[in-house]
Amino acid sequence: MSSNQEIIHLQTTLTFSHAGKRMDQVLAELFPDYSRSRIKEWILAGGVKINGEVVDKPRTKLLGSEAVEIEGKIEVQTAHEAQAIDLPIIYEDDDIIIINKPMGIVVHPGAGNRDNTMLNALLNHCPGIDVVPRAGIVHRLDKDTTGLMVVAKTIPAHTHLVAELQAREISREYEAIVNGVLVAGGTVDAPIGRHPTKRTSMAVRHDGRESVTHYRIIEKFKDFTHLRLKLESGRTHQIRVHMSHLRHPLVGDPLYGGRTRLPKGASQELIDTLRGFSRQALHAVQLGLFHPTSGEWMTWQAPLPEDFVMLRNILRKESPLY
Are 223 and 181 in contact (CB under 8 A)? Predict the structure, then answer.
């Protein structure tokens, strides 16, 4: 494994909500692309300035409203292999790539998924991207969630987009089919954290991180609902956790929905479709952001994938009264 060093420059202005909190904790929350331990290393190394003065004590309590500048070093690892994997790119320029992610591809290598990931594909498609943190990946989609993602091709673009994401300026909208019939749209405002016993799952918990999901009804079916959802925050599995919390889990979600729910009186076609739907019915349908160089507001849409459309059409056939 080889590596080299890159310098990361970050800056932000704190708000009064940060008053009284530890500096390392706040900076880790504001810059989630970097771990708290890495932030602490940068603080101890004198890489953090508060209102222009170096502050090298991680436990320093903040007043709120301070200007923060960070200059940190990262080791860029080149262990991951570039692999010739097809990337469904719908837009690309010198700064960003917009991808319509297919089902079944893991975004970033991890335990049990060292190869054939989106990161491996990006290293092959854009070799210079290896110097950008996480090969430019700004946000993730679950393995079996389809739809739009943005990737940064340069370190400045990555820094800008991470800050934009943190400021909730990137618009991400999804479509989903959930179990049960919802009466109306609404908002789920429920904090999410790691599940206390299932370490691969997330859960709504009082000590979790703020998580907000807005949803509206597109179409009602007998025993199911087609939703449009918009993320205000972006926690791991957020939509899946929030809809399960409402007791309307996504169709096909084995982690948060349990066994496949078969409605009474369902046709054999619907039963076979539900049993054969091997992923959560979730698609990132629209993405909007301010371009990191031009500042222009840009949006992209991705049509619903074939399996999602097939499920929706069969539900329509089964729901003549809706």
Answer: yes
3-state secondary structure of 299: strand
Asked if 147 and 229 touch (Cβ cutoff 8 Å), the reply is no
* CB-based contacts of 138, cutoff 8 Å, min separation 6: 33, 149, 150, 151, 152, 158, 161, 162, 165
User: Is 142 a residue of the active site?
Assistant: yes
C-alpha to C-alpha distances, 166 to 138, 161, 287, nearest whole angstrom? 11, 8, 15
Which of the following is catalytic: 142, 144, 223, 253?
A: 142
155-194: pLDDT as tens digits? 889 988 988 998 899 999 999 999 999 999 999 999 999 8
Those residues whose C-beta lies under 8 Å from the C-beta of residue 294, and which sit 6 or more positions away, are: none
Residues, the chain: 322
Residue 23 contacts residue 50 (beta carbons within 8 Å): yes
Query: Is pLDDT larger for residue 315 or for residue 80?
Result: 315
Q: What is the pTM of this model?
A: 0.76
pLDDT in tens, 219-276: 999 999 999 999 998 888 999 999 999 999 999 998 999 888 888 888 999 999 999 9
> Collapsing DSSP states into helix, strand and coil, what is residue 145?
coil
- Nearest alpha-carbon partner for 118 in 94, 95, 102, 133: 102
How far from each other are the two terminal CA atoms of the chain, in whole angstroms? Answer: 58
Are 223 and 180 in contact by the 8 Å Cβ rule? The answer is yes
Q: Which two tokens stand for residue 93?
A: 């320029």
Tens-digit pLDDT profile for residues 198-225: 878 899 999 899 999 999 999 999 999 9
